[in-house]
Amino acid sequence: MIRPTFALLAASMALVGCANNILSDDHIRQDTALVLNQPASAIAISDRRFDGSTNTYYMARTPRGTFRCVIDGGTVMTMGLTNPPQCTRQ
To answer: Which residues partner with 58 through β-bridges?
Structure first.
């Protein structure tokens, strides 16, 4: 009886960390498109990672090149609100 309870507790804890970041790729793509002055359909998001507090790091590939970006916000604590992403060309 203890093992199933422990497994359920461990799985729940793993999901809590994932649920904290509520940013979708679509939201990131739209915000990045505005900053890079590109259509959202021309941006591919990859290598996305969340730092566990408020920042999401990712690569944005466009016809103009590849950019390393960070977007602040988009968590439960910020109610999904974000600051504009900061991107640097690779």
So the answer is: 69
| Helix (H) or strand (E) run with residue 4 in it | helix 2-19
45 inside domain:
yes
Structural domain includes residue 15: no
Q: Which amino acid is at 10?
A: A
User: How many domains, in total, are found in the chain?
Assistant: 1
In a domain, 1, yes or no: no
The rounded distance, in Å, linking the Cα atoms of 32 and 36 is 6
Per-residue pLDDT for 59 more than 70? yes
* 36: containing domain: 21-89
pLDDT at 65 over 90: yes
Mean pLDDT of 10-38: 76
Length of the chain: 90
A 10 A CB-CB count for 68 gives: 14
